Amino acid sequence: MAAAEIQPSVAPQPALAPVRPVDRIYNLDMLRGWAILGILAVNAISFAWPFQLTMAELPPPGSDTRADLIGLWVTDVFFADKFRTLFTMLFGVSIFLVGGERFDEQRGRLLTRRLLWLGLFGILHGLIWYGDILLHYAYSGLLMMLMRSWKPKRLLWVGGGITLLWGIVATAGYWAMANLPPEIEAQMMAGQPPSDPAAIAAAIELYKAGGFSGILENIKVWATFQLMISPFLLPITVPLMMLGLGLFKSGYLHGKAPLWIYLAVIAVGGANLAVFGLWRWQDLMAGEADPTGGLAAAASGMAFLITLFYASILILLVRFGLRPLTAWLAPVGRMAFTNYLTQTLIMVTLYYAPWGPMWFGQHDPVQMWTVVVAIWAAQLIWSPLWLSRFSMGPLEWLWRCLTYGRMVPISKPAAA
After folding, report:
1. What is the C-alpha separation between 104 and 108, in angstroms, rounded?
2. Which DSSP letter does residue 51 get?
3. How far is it, in rounded angstroms, from Cα 272 to Cα 160?
4. DSSP class of 165
5. Percent composition of the chain: helix, strand, coil (DSSP 3-state, to 5)
6. What is the DSSP letter of 411?
7. Which terminus of the chain is more exposed, N or C, with fewer CB under 10 A?
């Protein structure tokens, strides 16, 4: 990829000037919308089933019909680790768009306030769902601030190199874990969170014991996650943010890189997706025995290549004048913060909040997919309707007011 730095389609605004609709960068909104919708498909099981089940990467009990297996296959192959990766890369871009260059102290202070408020949002969010990513993004973003003025070549080599290294480690690790001698596997599983049916049933009962028991149990899991897991994801998250900003500064996310680079990324990522899809299908349909000898798990290690495969196709659609095919994604992306938190409010209400139907521990993959698609439909309708009246989402507006320390306009200006 050409590494010469380009100017963004729209230069970052002065520190005290709220972003106007005309200042939006379409490709970023489109990709962000794609990411926020896909994230829900992966997060659904974390709302619907206990932490022990998701950590052990087990399917929900009773997920043995062909339709359920197809639902699991679609999630694993097309969604898991692909959309969080994309959203993380785009967050790295936002660090630069808000904070500008490191020498701009005023914009740097604005960015710091924005990230600190994001951290507070993350803490509040974590109190109702342990899978919150906002707090992690807040302190990862404070580190990413230090690299936001790097040249695109350096961002791509360092961020992309570390991301590729983690992909290689994951690929080798998944294959090795699938081929461990039985006695070693038994020893390693002994230290894992309990995943037997009795432990899962007990966890479900804790969430459904009445009152706010589900919320309280979630807080315990969230605290454990923040202390024991989240900090160790920094070496993965920050390089992805660097990679995203490198792709932005080099012109890739604008659709300005040479065509052959996009085609090469599509070829490599598409091949990874095809191989993973085939092997994972064979693995799921075989039952207990893995006919791929661990290759199905190993093929999931390079998920970021599939992420770039998706992004490259969407970018080329815009580049070749097919923007209408992607236009449905942009409003969702413009309201990504609102839509992400709205997804949580809906899912918590449905699965373990005391004011909801308490579906926790009951839904198989097909039922979870029904809920996910319904929420997608609602957000695809809600987002453009809201933006037809207002310049930003309601939570984007609140976050911006807190960041600037004053009320900012949310209504669209009257037409001249």
Report:
1. 6
2. H
3. 17
4. H
5. 70, 0, 30
6. B
7. C
